[in-house]
């Protein structure tokens, strides 16, 4: 493994090659943390190249040492150089978000830098509708949306008692993995009320329900 960390205008550019083990990741993240402290820069553009795709949270230090490294102001944009790496990053982002870490996965450096600089920070976050990414979705009650590119095609809910956001998304994926390209979610205490609110908002702005909700009616 080799890596470089460079302070730029308002962010750190951290590049790692050949990151193949949990030990490699730990060494790299501790070096990034040291650079953040030295330069007093909490925003990190992290580029992972020629590395093995890792789908285990513990290999990224989640639920472990990362809690000591990442402060509330820390913001990390993850960028890979292969489709498999980017899919792993999306999965890790889902898990990290549930633990309160401000991490986003991107497919190119410019998009990651755009986010770090505060542009488009309010955009709705969507995740790829793929089994491995869905497996990181919350195991909680709440609501979810299915998207076809930029169109919301379905709103649904998970009421708890064995029905979770993750299980409901997996049900939809198993039924038809082509019905959506992405998904989004929101944990809430009253999924039925929140789903009804979202459907009303969509009806008011589009004049109709999402098309898959309309088909299910």
Describe the protein.
By secondary structure, the chain is of the alpha/beta class. 38% of the residues lie in helices and 24% in strands. It has eight helices and nine strands. The protein has helices at residues 22-39, 66-69, 83-98, 109-116, 131-134, 165-175, 191-206, 211-216, and strands at 2-7, 12-17, 43-49, 75-80, 102-106, 127-128, 142-148, 151-158, 182-187. It has a five-stranded mixed sheet with strand order 1-2-3-4-5, sandwiched between helices. The chain is elongated, with a radius of gyration of 19 Å. The model has no long low-confidence stretch (mean pLDDT 88).
Identify the overall geometry.
elongated
Quote the beta fraction.
15-25%
Structural class: alpha/beta
| N to C succession of SSEs | EEHEHEHEHEHEEHEHH
Distance between the ends = 55 Å
Compute the CA-based radius of gyration: 19 Å
Query: Count of helical segments?
Result: 8
Q: Which ranges are low-confidence, i.e. pLDDT below 50, for 5 or more consecutive residues?
A: none
Mean pLDDT comes to 88
* Helix-residue proportion: 25-40%
- The number of strands is 9
Determine the oligomeric state from the structure.
Answer: single chain
What strand order characterises the main sheet?
Answer: 1-2-3-4-5
- Can you summarize the main beta sheet? 5 strands, mixed
């Amino acid at each position: 493994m080799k890596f470089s960390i460079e302070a730029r205008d308002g962010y750190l550019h951290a590049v790692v090659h050949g990151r193949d083990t949990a030990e490699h990741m730990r060494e790299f993240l501790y070096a990034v943390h040291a650079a953040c402290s030295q330069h007093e820069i909490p925003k990190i553009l992290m580029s992972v190249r020629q590395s093995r795709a890792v789908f285990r949270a513990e290999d990224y230090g989640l639920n472990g040492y990362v809690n000591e490294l990442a402060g509330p102001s820390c913001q990390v944009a993850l960028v890979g150089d292969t489709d498999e790496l980017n899919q792993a990053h999306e999965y890790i982002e889902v898990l990290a978000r549930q633990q309160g870490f401000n991490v986003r996965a991107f497919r190119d450096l410019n998009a990651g830098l755009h986010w770090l600089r505060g542009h488009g920070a309010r955009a709705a976050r969507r995740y790829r509708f793929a089994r491995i990414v869905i497996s990181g979705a919350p195991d909680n009650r709440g609501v979810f949306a299915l998207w076809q590119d930029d169109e919301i095609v379905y709103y649904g809910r998970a009421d708890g008692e064995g029905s979770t956001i993750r299980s409901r998304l997996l049900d939809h994926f198993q039924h038809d993995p082509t019905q959506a390209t992405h998904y989004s979610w929101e944990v809430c205490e009253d999924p039925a009320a929140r789903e009804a609110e979202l459907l009303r908002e969509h009806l008011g702005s589009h004049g109709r329900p999402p098309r898959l909700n309309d088909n299910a009616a």
